[in-house]
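Subject: Protein record for review, amino acid sequence with backbone structure tokens
How to read it: Take the token row as a discrete description of the fold.
Enclosed: The protein record, placed directly beneath this head.
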Amino acid sequence: MNRSILKLAIPNIISNITIPLLGLVDMILMGHLDSAIYIGAIALGGTIFSVLYSFFSFLRAGTTGFTAQSYGNNDKTEIIYSLYRAIAIGIPIIILILSLQIPIAKVSSLLLDGSNDVKNLAITYFYVRIWAAPANILLYCLNGWFVGMQNTKIPMFIAILINVMNIIFSFILVIIFEQNVKGVALGTVIAQYSGLALAIIMLIKNYKSYFVKINTKILFDIEKMKRFFKVNRDLMIRSFLLIISIAFFTNQSAKLGNNILAINMILLQSFYIFSYFTDGFAYAGEALVGKFVGSKDKENLQKVIRLLLIWGFSISIPFSILYALSPSTFVKIISNNSEILTGIQPYYIYMIIIPLITFAAFIWDGIYIGATASKAIRNTMIISTIFVFIPSWYFLMPRFGNHGLWIAFLFFMIARGVSMSLMYKKNIINNC
């Protein structure tokens, strides 16, 4: 079982770690310009896309769950129609996003906090990067399907290509052509379409035998579509609340000034690096849990859940130790701004304890998604956001400032892990 976990997890870790690496490079490129406003701008601009795509990330998670269960049940028809349905839903979403880009930008500008310079640059970033939306949405569908097919190597190759291309073009456009935030955004657009091209090539090369002529009766089967939308509705709510919480954190950081915004975004990079590393095991959980749920194998289902949690805890320890031994080294890689280097020191403690506090939430996410236990994962997110994070922020931030904001965020992550731990037997084991 451990070999099965690692076979799926290691390619996921490699592909996931390239995501915060890209964010890190973007931060480095902006952090070495002459003002902190550039870091704040891509942080706020990135927040717009995080919130926007949170509505539609169910296309990846839901597709993985449905495909993995069909794979475990050896239902070849439903395996390919899981992909067909995801794409059929994804295309109207793409048209909607591109059609509404101006209203989205205007609403985002009203909701985001920060100086006018930061907000204007963030909207500039948005109008360039929005043209990557078609590739981004279709990659959700394709990557989710590949993972459901127990294949994490293809998403790894796609992620590596996307991020290498993004780094190269962002560097050229920012350093050589001096395009600052426009350059970073355009680099993302070019890279996303490169990744989509590779995904299509790999799909045809490796899974051509699965392709069948589309039967609209099967594609739009009422019962299958009802289940598809029910599960994905709940996953959409869950993803939206998660991203809204991070966006809220970013927005509250901006209210504390450009320097605090930059400091918190740098600290979040350390969180993202760990989270994407842990998500490698969560994605392995999506694939394996889905397979065992599909084959009604309760014994292996319980075994893989236990081992996934052990792996999550095991990798949190070296991250905390690493951050404790040399927090300043990580920060100096991102920025050489003297005010940021001095101002961030009181907040190193959050970088150190985040891995130990948050690993359970990430692992449980993968387990619940694989089991398509969407209602339960939605409810745990509602509890954690509305009844833990917001009240904690309300009482703590006015008294403790940025420390209060960070403590509220950590309470939010703890609540996610604890609530899913308490509910898993009822919603996963008993339903297998």
About this structure: The chain has a mean pLDDT of 89. Residues 2-429 form one domain. The radius of gyration is 21 Å.
